[in-house]
């Protein structure tokens, strides 16, 4: 079953953020846009390239009113150790959630049960806590965080302009569509 249009399920977890351990719940995803980025494991290979790339886009995402959360099935302690020992991960200023209980990974349907790790899943969540986009990649395929910026802008545009939709390759300021009988078969 698709998670699109569903509200984030309840959870409570510990996270590492800017030198501190904090608690995060589903309530933290409400009142603002959120990106939740699942990855298999700390101290690995593709994961730090993705998380570093996400950090490179973090200021742009924050300027759009978006908070970023990375999640793996490692503990918040492991996140801190990785942050302290890796040049790439040491630059991260967004929230790194630990999910050793697998509750969050199961809630988002990204847990690889037999391995106890998460798939590479990216979710955009609106200010009501409702999932608007889902992207899942196989373990060997890294994601490009720059694509999140346009997806966020499109999701925000559609939310703020009821009755309009964003076509393929839409860019901010570009033409949108107003679905109607007149457009059927003419696009």
From TrEMBL:
Family (UniProt): Belongs to the peroxiredoxin family. AhpC/Prx1 subfamily.
The keyword Oxidoreductase is assigned to this record: yes
Top-level EC class as recorded in UniProt: oxidoreductase
Listed name of the protein: Alkyl hydroperoxide reductase C
Gene: ahpC
Self-association state and partner proteins as the record states: Homodimer; disulfide-linked, upon oxidation. 5 homodimers assemble to form a ring-like decamer.
Organism: Paenibacillus thailandensis
CDD domains in UniProt: PRX_Typ2cys (cd03015)
Main localization category: cytoplasm
């Amino acid at each position: 079953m698709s998670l699109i249009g569903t509200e984030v399920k309840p959870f409570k977890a510990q996270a590492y953020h800017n030198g501190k351990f904090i608690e995060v719940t589903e309530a933290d995803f409400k009142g603002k846009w959120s990106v939740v980025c699942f990855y298999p494991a700390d101290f690995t290979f593709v994961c730090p390239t993705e998380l570093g790339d996400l950090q490179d886009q973090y200021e742009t995402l924050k300027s759009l009113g978006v908070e970023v959360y990375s999640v793996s099935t490692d503990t918040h302690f492991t996140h801190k150790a990785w942050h302290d020992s890796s040049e790439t991960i040491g630059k991260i200023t967004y929230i790194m959630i630990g999910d050793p209980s697998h509750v969050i990974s199961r809630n988002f349907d990204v847990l690889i049960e037999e391995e106890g790790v998460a798939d590479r899943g990216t979710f955009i969540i609106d200010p009501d806590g409702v999932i608007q986009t889902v992207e899942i990649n196989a373990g060997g395929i890294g994601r490009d965080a720059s694509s999140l910026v346009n997806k966020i802008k499109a999701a925000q545009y559609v939310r703020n302009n009821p009755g309009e939709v964003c076509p393929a390759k839409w860019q901010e300021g570009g033409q949108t569509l107003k679905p109607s009988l007149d457009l059927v078969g003419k696009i």
